[in-house]
Amino acid sequence: MAFDVIASTFQQKAIAKTPWRKTVEVGLIGFGLMIYFNIVGLTGQFMERWIIESMATLAHTIFLGIAIGAGALAAHRNETLSPGARLVHAALAGLIAGAGLAILVEVLNNFNVRFMFVAMSPKLLAFLSFGVNAELASLALLAGGVVLGAFGGMLYSVPGIVRKPLVVGLASVWFVGLFAELILLASQFEVMEDIRNFFFTWEGQRLEGAIVVFCVAVGLSAFWTARGESIMTNYRGKGARQQKGIRYSLWLLAGVLFILFPMAAGSFFGQVLMLVGLYALMGMGLNIEIGLAGLLDMGFVAFFATGAYTIALFTVPESDVACVTPPCDYLIKIIDRPLTWFEALPLAMLASLVMGVLFGIPVLKVRGDYLAVATLGLGEIIRVVAVSDMAAPMLGGSQGLLSIPRPVLFDFEFSDPIHLFYLTLVSTIVAAYFAWALENSRLGRAWMAIREDEDVGQALGVNLVDVKLLAYGLGAVFAGLAGAIFAAMLASIYPHSFQLLISINILALIIVGGIGSLPGVIVGSAMLIGTPELLREFGEFRFLAYGIVLVIMMRVLPLGLWPSSVRKRELQTLEEAERLLKDRGAEGQKA
């Protein structure tokens, strides 16, 4: 009863908020964002990154977006008011947001705060004040906040058929300008030179190119807004076989474009896609342990290192440190030469399998968070051993192993990142098939049984020892395959390449993509590994956006970007049960 009273009190307070209070809250959020972006140094990083050459930098667009967003949000929170009143509230929200920059200009002009905030430099003051008098710049910032806030309110108030194309057009110009350098890298063809020079320079997007992008985006968005519903209605009216044929055709087209893209885009994109594929391979292995069997493994990088070191030991020429101890020395003496990469690959996967089984034996009886700590310790043991002087005669110690040969198949050497990407792609497809087959096998069902409850699974006849060791061993095989490709990519390996952060990243991509979901692993790898690689030009600040997106995504999509069908059914069942209990409780209170 007391909880109900407290909850009803909070609801009353939320209802009692006046329109002005809602507007001020929105404005203060914009105010805080304006201050924050300058204090942490984002403005200094982005003030020279042009979105539209010589007109608008990335910092300008961020500030414009905050002020316009504040106005639109204020109008949304006061949508019951008249259009004129909403416009006033939107302008006020923009004014408060703009006041953040105006106050910052006055502080920088009159006080030296750089001893506390390194980013507060004279260069920042010159940027925010447009090179004019500080007082005049402050007034201009306040007036600009009012105008932009009102524009945001107007944008929210206009009909969707007008608003959506405008928003899509502005967003398209921003995204094209943001990724202008990547687009230039991907379009280095002589036949595209004139088009490329029309739209871009290496400084950013040209004004005429931005106008074309805006017009095209607005036109396409307006067409879809007007005709999209009829197109979808026509699609739904087709038979099931026709719908399936259309979907398969689209997936086939997307697959062909994806396969051809690295050849067209160049080595940089091939390198990024190869890293995505390597993490997807490891994610599939860890997904067996965590997503299917429920075994939280924080030392998964040890299997990755095992595959890489095994490839190096069996393929590096004898003059380069490798193979001075059994068993690789014994095998190489039999065949009288180092192995090729493809010959050593089965040995790397076998070594990873054995390591996974040995890894799982000490933690068979450990569950929950204790399992995570135990596996973390085992993973660190592997890394410490690899860097130790004791193992240096075989593993090279901190000097690592060099001169690892590239994979060669039928006299074709996989020497370019694009070639290695295709090797990774084929490996990922094959691994995904085996992971799917394991998930839908009797063993996969046994894994899912012990994931839900080990005691119940054991009572139903599941052999916990066999099932757990198979999960560790088979999961390790995927990581060993990824490690073998990784060694070929670098042509050298070092113990410091196998840090705990790799295990954390693999776990994160599984959670983001969707625990227990194979497509989710690939999507999570693209999001967590591919996106930061593409945004390297923004330095460490790319991880700020990365973290914000993750927090928002986990709030909006707690099951991941592509959750497994099993977990979706479980969530729906749980929600239905909670709803049923709530309804019964309400009926009991009425009675």
Short descriptors:
two-stranded antiparallel sheet; 591 residues; 26 helices; globular; ABC transporter involved in vitamin B12 uptake, BtuC; mainly alpha; 6 strands; 2 domains; single chain; disordered N terminus
**How many strands, which pairing sense, and closed or not: the largest β-sheet?**
2 strands, antiparallel
What is the architecture of the largest domain at the second tier of CATH?
A: Orthogonal Bundle
What would you call the structural class? mainly alpha
Helix content: over 70%
Low-confidence stretches: 1-14, 319-327
The third-level CATH topology of the largest domain is ABC transporter involved in vitamin B12 uptake, BtuC
What is the tally of beta strands?
6
Beta-strand residue percentage: under 5%
Total helical elements = 26
Overall mean pLDDT stands at 84
Determine the N-to-C terminus distance. Answer: 16 Å
Shape: globular
What's the alpha carbon Rg, rounded to whole Å? 29 Å
| Strand order in the sheet with the most strands | 1-2
For the record, the CATH class of the largest domain is Mainly Alpha
How many separate domains? 2
Q: Could you explain the architecture of this structure?
A:
The chain is mainly α and 591 residues long. The chain folds into two domains: 15-233, no CATH class; 266-574, ABC transporter involved in vitamin B12 uptake, BtuC. It contains 26 helices and six strands. Strands 1-2 form a two-stranded antiparallel ribbon. Strands 3-4 form a two-stranded antiparallel sheet. Strands 5-6 form a two-stranded antiparallel sheet. A hairpin with a 2-residue loop joins strand 5 and strand 6. Helix 14 (301-315) packs antiparallel against helix 16 (341-360), helix 14 crosses helix 22 (464-490) and helix 19 (417-439) runs antiparallel to helix 22.
